[in-house]
Design goal:
The chain is of the alpha/beta class. The chain has a single domain, classed as 3-Layer(aba) Sandwich (Rossmann fold), CATH 3.40.50. It has helices at about 5-10, 15-20, 20-25, 25-35, 55-60, 70-85, 120-130, 150-165, 175-180, 200-205, 210-220, 225-230, and strands spanning about 45, 65-70, 90-95, 105-115, 135-145, 185-200, 240-250. A seven-stranded mixed sheet has the order 3-2-1-4-5-7-6. Helix 7 (about 120-130) links the parallel strand 4 (about 105-115) and strand 5. It binds S-adenosylmethionine (SAM). The site of S-adenosylmethionine has 23 residues, from helix 1, helix 5 and strand 2.
Length: about 260
């Protein structure tokens, strides 16, 4: 969960995120753009752009996107990828998305997709985003969420952390909604999406070693109760799938 762990995990696997179909084409990418309703004159901020798919999707609709990621090789990979797509209106900044290096009330839109669960202080990060939004500005937060049941929630977080040591914590949708409201933003909508994942590519994306792959396989199939219902494992061998869930939140900053 430390900055160094995130930089190591994502630095070593940057290209895997550029080529990841889950990130390039996941249903939440389209939904993020729909919720953001980006306008041509806007200055947008994409926090933690990873392989660049979220920044690219917004950049196609706005004047400029500033993209802040903590991992330098990730920024390089994302910049090369988005340029190869002909998108030149993205400014890449290395920085901590939980403590933004920007003044107050700068951005019309802030997006963050599938990254907040790596942040050590999630509530503080959202409060900082609220600071940087213009009055009336929008936040679209998309992130993995966990079950409400605390035992099942711990199980999912242990499972995720074994696959990716830089995993921080997934919260329930209700907890993320609370963080957004506590930041002084008005929550306009909240939804969850089931995200079916291919189990083996999910592990390969983070270069999981053989012994941990065996433990993850056991954890997947030996899960029970709410954790089992959440993970919903299916199939076998290379065709094994399981579910993650994403929460999608739209909020805005009050005018006054
Ligand atoms: C899964 S990727 C993001 C995917 C991307 N937003 C998309 O929609 O395709 C997660 C990213 O979060 C970044 N990250 C993690 N903690 C961060 C922090 N505190 N500040 C900025 N970036 C961070 C990692 O470096 C990594 O690039």
């Amino acid at each position: 969960m430390s900055r160094e762990l995130v930089q190591k995990q994502f630095g070593d696997n940057a290209e895997n995120y550029v080529s990841s179909q889950v990130h390039a084409q996941g249903a939440s990418l389209k939904e993020m753009v729909r919720l953001a309703d980006p306008q041509p004159g806007w200055l947008a901020l994409d926090v933690a752009p990873g392989g660049g798919h979220s920044a690219l999707a917004i950049a196609r609709h706005v004047r400029q996107v500033v993209a802040v990621d903590i991992t330098f090789p990730m920024l390089q990979a994302a910049r090369d990828f988005t340029r190869s797509q002909g998108q030149e209106n993205i400014v890449w900044v290395q920085g901590n998305g939980g403590r933004l290096p920007f003044g107050a009330e700068r951005f019309d839109l802030i997006t963050c997709r599938v990254a907040l669960h790596h942040f050590p202080r999630q509530a503080a990060a959202i409060a900082d985003w609220a600071r940087c939004l213009k009055p009336g500005g929008r936040l679209v937060l998309v992130d993995n969420v966990g079950p409400k049941d605390p035992v099942a929630n711990d199980y999912i977080n242990t499972f995720e952390k074994l696959r990716d040591p830089s995993h921080g914590r997934v919260h329930s949708p209700a907890q993320l909604a609370r963080f957004i409201k506590d930041a002084g933003l008005i929550l306009l909508s909240a939804a969850t999406l089931r995200k079916p994942m291919l189990f083996h590519p999910w592990m390969t994306r983070m270069s999981v070693p053989k012994t941990d792959r065996a433990t993850l396989t056991r954890m997947l199939w030996e899960s029970d109760g709410s954790a089992r219902a959440f993970l919903n494992p299916q199939g076998e061998g290379e065709k094994t799938t399981f579910d993650l869930q994403e929460g999608l939140f739209l909020a805005h900053k009050p005018e006054q």
